[in-house]
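Fill in residues.
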């Protein structure tokens, strides 16, 4: 499929607000942890709004509502060949958001992000960094697996800029729902989607970056950091540089966590 393919984008499929008649979490998706609404958002169905405050009409769609809507998306052609949409994992109360590139083969089959070899390496790094898993929300810039077939194998193919742009309304809605304190971008594709510009992990790693569009929507600054994608570290396994690469990923996770309030 040519990268010049015309793609309508996901905006038409992304719900702006929760459907108050459909308050339950979708199958396979957890309700917000503890039933709490996101900061500045509406209370969950059946729960009271904060004392003295009515739920604002512009409260963003919850993660549960986004997960429920995502399988219907036809914003690009990737859904034609992928097994299923792979949305996210983590609670709406998470304070640290990890954004990757796209699901891999195992994620496409299981329907959950970061469950393959790179995901296991990331889990090891999170544990080594001493981060509470409950503080994490994990997602990808692109929600369907892009691949090319080589015999019986499906080989990862980097998403085109058009795929990142087409899928961006989903990530934008996730950021609005979570309202994280810190976003850690795993690789250049994720950084492009979050920052709205081309980014270099090598040059900008360890720096606190600005995401003006995110700040404008949330009404406050969100700290953005870049690190390598765990798959890049995984490819070094067995090489002399692996230990240093893994340690650098752990250090970036610790740096991101250090900026949580």
């Amino acid at each position: 499929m040519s990268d010049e393919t015309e793609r309508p984008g996901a905006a038409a499929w992304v719900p702006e607000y929760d459907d108050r008649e459909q308050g339950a979490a979708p199958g396979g998706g957890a309700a917000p942890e503890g039933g709490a609404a996101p900061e500045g958002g509406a209370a969950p169905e059946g729960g009271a709004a904060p004392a003295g405050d009515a739920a604002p009409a512009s409260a963003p769609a919850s993660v549960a509502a986004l997960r429920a809507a995502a399988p219907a998306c036809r914003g690009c052609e990737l859904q034609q060949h992928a097994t299923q949409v792979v949305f996210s994992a983590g609670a709406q109360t998470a304070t640290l958001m990890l954004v990757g590139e796209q699901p891999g083969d195992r994620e496409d089959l299981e329907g959950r992000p970061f469950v393959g070899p790179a995901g296991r390496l990331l889990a090891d790094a999170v544990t080594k960094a001493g981060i509470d898993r409950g503080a994490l929300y994990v997602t990808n810039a692109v929600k369907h697996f892009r691949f090319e077939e080589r015999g019986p194998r499906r080989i990862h193919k980097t998403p085109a800029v058009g795929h990142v742009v087409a899928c961006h309304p989903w990530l934008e809605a996730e950021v609005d729902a979570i309202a994280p304190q810190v976003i850690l971008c795993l690789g250049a594709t994720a950084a492009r989607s979050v920052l709205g510009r081309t980014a270099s992990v090598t040059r900008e790693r360890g720096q606190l970056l600005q995401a003006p569009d995110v700040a404008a929507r949330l009404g406050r600054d969100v700290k953005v950091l870049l690190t390598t994608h765990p798959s890049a570290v995984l490819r070094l396994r067995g090489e002399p540089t692996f230990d240093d690469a893994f340690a650098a990923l752990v250090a970036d996770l610790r740096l991101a966590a250090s900026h949580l309030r």
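The first helix runs from residue 63 to 69.
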